[in-house]
Amino acid sequence: MAPNKEEMLDMYRKMLLIREFEETVANLFSQGQIPGFVHLYVGEEAVAVGVCSNLGDKDYIASTHRGHGHGIARGASVEKMMAEIFGKIDGYCKGKGGSMHIAAVELGFLGANGIVGAGLPLAAGAAFANKYLKNGGVAVCFFGDGASNRATFHEALNLASIWKLPVIFVCENNMYGISMSQERHQNINDIADRAVAYGIPGVSVDGNDVMAVYEAAAEAIKRARAGEGPTLIECKTYRFRGHFEGDACVYRSEEEVNEWKKKCPIQRFGTSLLEMNIASREELDAISAEVKEQIKNAVEFARKSPYPDVSELTTDVYCD
Amino acid sequence: MSVGIIANPASGKDIRRLVAHATVFDNNEKANLIRRILLGLDSLGVRRVWFMPDYFGFYQRVLDSLAGRCRLALEARLLDMKINASQDDSRRAAEMMAAAGVSCIITLGGDGTNRVVAKGAGNIPLLPVSTGTNNVFPVMVEGTVAGLAAGLLATGAVEPEEALQRTKMLVIYINGRPADIALIDAVVLADRFTGSRAVWDASKIRQIAATRGSTACIGIASVVGGLRHIGPAEPCGMHVIVGSPTGDAAVSVRAAIGPGLIKRVPVVAYHLLQPGQRIQVLESPCVIALDGERELRINAGDSAEIELSMEGPWVVDIDRTLAAAAARGVFREHRERPAGNK
């Protein structure tokens, strides 16, 4: 079922929200206002939004070290996310997770993850739980091209395929594993090809086209909910910024970056909405203004929130 | 005496693996196929083969594996062009190959790949080898045989008039200006986005214009074929107006619109298209799928038309080429007998 106008505008809003969030984090990080490391999702917004726009309450997502976009697409509060990244008590993990370990289990967001490829078995496990509970839920795992070389990729896809788990493996192929280009780290170009080895469908889509991602995810989720098992979706995309903030990006050319910026997923979707008479310029401008205000408030919220007390150091470590 | 090879590294991977039951054609297998094509070409003495550069690197991978026991006498060269991993790479490569004077261009892909190559090839014939999903235009053929057929044409062992067949095409006009072409079908969809490109939801089809129709095809040409068979050389096409699934169309056609995807398509009206005849696209805004892929967005307020042209790309008819060569004794070798041994 194609999304209606309201749903499409919500997708546009979420993509803009991710972009504004990430660019604001970049700015604050460069000013030394954010502790730790940040890996930003700018340029890849269509993947998270295209996939998560198909999810319901019972569904889970497992994320990566570049996880802010996944959280926002899943419906996380930008105030609580910003507070978490600031290391404040009002963050999703009371400021103890930070950018790379932000999680919101109440939203089915199993967390960002500092270990490359660690989300794959987590998602397979969540999918197993859903299947066991017969609640109709699915799990989605986002991971990168580099992670597709990890043993966890093989283990998760193998187990998910043999047990027909309701899981969708979404590879965000942004062409680089940190600084290593895909052509130097694997002997294939289309990670979707690997699905054949597990006897599951594998498709490649334009990861900078939110509707292409949406359609592929919708079909894969439908298949998973019907008990037909997992799917591997490869989304060809690109991160506009470095692997981490401060990355000098000596491994890729400015020309390459500029070519990909011409394929900006938000601009493309916005143009389509206008040209196909789905939205007016005024509507899109209003969304843009609202998003800016929302992120401004999120920063304000994060700044005002206190740091966790030192007594918090030993809480939330083990489950009771 | 040269041949071009354009292999699409992106063919055979789209959403039809998920929404239908399409075959996965991975790039290492395409590389294998190209090796066999080269060996076929080499055996007939073709001197040079031009490759389109691509993100997978077919050229290097193929040649690396032919540097040992199966060393080639022919010279394989890579076109000096920058690629951007889009379909336009294939069009530009075809233009460059045409300028380099190749006898034909061997394509590896589906209908979509050949559509793009045809835009750049001009009068240079194509030898289309199927590695895509909707394969009406290209043929399922063993690479060695494809290489032999192209080699026979390139070396002059078979004359062009014996080997070539002219195909039809559709020209799509937007606001009166030619915007694109299709080799097999142009399908008007009640859709707003090109999205994941494939067409699998038959309820969105509003109009079909086609150069061919056969129930032996996979894709929209099978809808046309269910109404009347139209061969590749027949001087006509077809226009079909499709009804809504809940409407009262008198006829519906059961057709394999994708691999393993057999749907009923309600037909309100259909008529043959004559060469040069244009039909009006009745829906706006809409999306037009060309050769199985949602490609053109017709914006609100724009008008679009589709015309049948008899001036589609030339294609190497593999069977005819090989048969002509065989009839001429090209494949026969007579052993010299020693003198006096009669």
From TrEMBL, chain A:
Per UniProt, the enzyme's principal EC class comes to oxidoreductase
Q: What is the catalytic activity of this protein? A: N(6)-[(R)-lipoyl]-L-lysyl-[protein] + pyruvate + H(+) = N(6)-[(R)-S(8)-acetyldihydrolipoyl]-L-lysyl-[protein] + CO2
State the Gene Ontology terms under molecular function: pyruvate dehydrogenase (acetyl-transferring) activity
Cofactor(s) required for function per UniProt: thiamine diphosphate
Q: Tell me the keywords, alphabetical order.
A: Oxidoreductase, Pyruvate, Thiamine pyrophosphate
Output the GO biological process annotations, alphabetical, semicolon-separated.
Answer: pyruvate decarboxylation to acetyl-CoA
Domain (Dehydrogenase E1 component): residue spans on this chain? 13-310
Q: What is its EC number?
A: 1.2.4.1
The subunit field of the Swiss-Prot or TrEMBL record says: Heterodimer of an alpha and a beta chain.
* Job description of the protein: The pyruvate dehydrogenase complex catalyzes the overall conversion of pyruvate to acetyl-CoA and CO(2).
Stored PANTHER family: PYRUVATE DEHYDROGENASE E1 COMPONENT SUBUNIT ALPHA (PTHR11516:SF60), PYRUVATE DEHYDROGENASE E1 COMPONENT, ALPHA SUBUNIT BACTERIAL AND ORGANELLAR (PTHR11516)
**Protein name as it appears in the record:** Pyruvate dehydrogenase E1 component subunit alpha
Can you name the source organism?
Answer: Desulfofundulus thermosubterraneus DSM 16057
From TrEMBL, chain B:
Pfam families membership: NAD_kinase
Cross-referenced Gene3D superfamilies, in alphabetical order? Probable inorganic polyphosphate/atp-NAD kinase, domain 1
Q: Which InterPro entries match?
A: AcoX-like, AcoX_kinase, ATP-NAD_kinase_N, NAD/diacylglycerol_kinase_sf, NADK
- Keyword check for Kinase, yes or no: yes
**From its record, what is one biological process in GO terms?**
NADP+ biosynthetic process
- UniProt keywords, alphabetically: Kinase, Transferase
Alphabetically, the GO molecular function entries are: ATP binding; NAD binding; NAD+ kinase activity
The reply to whether Zinc-finger figures as a keyword in the UniProt entry is no
Q: What is this protein called?
A: Predicted polyphosphate-or ATP-dependent NAD kinase
Query: Species name for this entry?
Result: Desulfofundulus thermosubterraneus DSM 16057
